[in-house]
Amino acid sequence: MKIDAHQHFWQFDPVRDSWITEDMGRIRRNFLPEDLYPLLKSSGIEACIAVQADTSLRETDFLLDLAGQYSWISGVVGWVDLSSLNLDQTLEVYSGNSKLLGFREILQSKDPQFMLREKFIQGIQAIGKKGYTYDILVYPHHLSASLELVKKCPNQKFVIDHLAKPYIKDKEWKEWKKAMQPIAERELVYCKVSGMVTEADWKNWTEDDLAPYLEIALELFGPDRLMYGSDWPVCLLAGEYGQVYEVIQNWTSRLSKSERDRILGETAAEFYHIY
User: Fold this and answer.
1) In this predicted structure, what is the pLDDT of residue 137?
2) What secondary structure letter does DSSP report for 230?
3) Residue pLDDT, tens place only, 16-58
4) What is the CB neighbour count within 10 angstroms for residue 222?
5) pLDDT digits over 233-256, tens only?
6) What's the confidence (pLDDT) of residue 87?
7) Distance set, CA 220 to CA 57, 75, 141, 214, 215 (Å)
8) Hey, where are the domains in the chain?
9) Which CATH number applies to 3-272?
């Protein structure tokens, strides 16, 4: 089964979604399942994972409601306040919903030390005990702290979103690789080959610009811990859904069928327990 392991839905609100600035006009509107389904179908993708874009329980409920309506939304990576004193009670409320697979925080907008606070780490450990995964959304300068977080939660399954957003536009990869390597050595840490076109030159990127980062990701994580994600609709800032998927299709074409199957769906199914 082919799975898009990373996409978003939203009903655009200019106040709540202030991160979608005026120069991002292409995505300053609603994006809902009926918009995505034809794109998945045309690329032969059978399922997707809806990932939070807002830090609220309302967001988690919104995505779970959509997943309940559409069987091809295989699961949700929601948001919860990991530092809350009421975390256990909140998790209990969601315990009956099998579509809730994991959680994410917008760590890229925070100081790297945010994720190393005692309460945050305890929160990660709490969701791990319930079987939830955790998506790490960071920039390269967060990777040192991310490694410490992973070390403090040795039994937790993590996935690095968007390859930690390397500086593709600047063609910088050496320091990023150096920081990613020790994280990739942790066997419970996976990586999404997603969100790359928006880290490149939006108007002028080529597949050759992305190739070094894909090759490094494959070297570090191997196909068994890599999963495809479109980052739709954010990707529309730099390319159409089909273009983004074609990059991964072309890149994986030289791999064996079993390796392609891992990256295009099986890894995500294993990580998020989609069967």
Assistant:
1) 98
2) -
3) 999 999 999 999 999 999 999 999 999 999 999 999 999 999 9
4) 15
5) 999 999 999 999 999 999 999 999
6) 97
7) 34, 27, 18, 10, 9
8) 3-272
9) 3.20.20.140
* Three-state DSSP class for residue 157: coil
Q: For 199, which DSSP code?
A: G
Spatial distance between the Cα atoms of 75 and 90, rounded to a whole number of angstroms = 18
CA distance 57 to 151: 28
Q: Which long-range contacts (CB under 8 A, 24 or more apart) does 178-183 make?
A: 179/140, 179/143, 179/144, 179/147, 180/143, 180/216, 180/220, 181/220, 182/147, 183/143, 183/146, 183/147, 183/150
Please identify which residue in the block is written with the tokens 């494959």.
218
| pLDDT, tens digit, 9 for 90 and up, residues 148-192 | 999 999 999 999 999 999 999 999 999 999 999 999 999 999 999
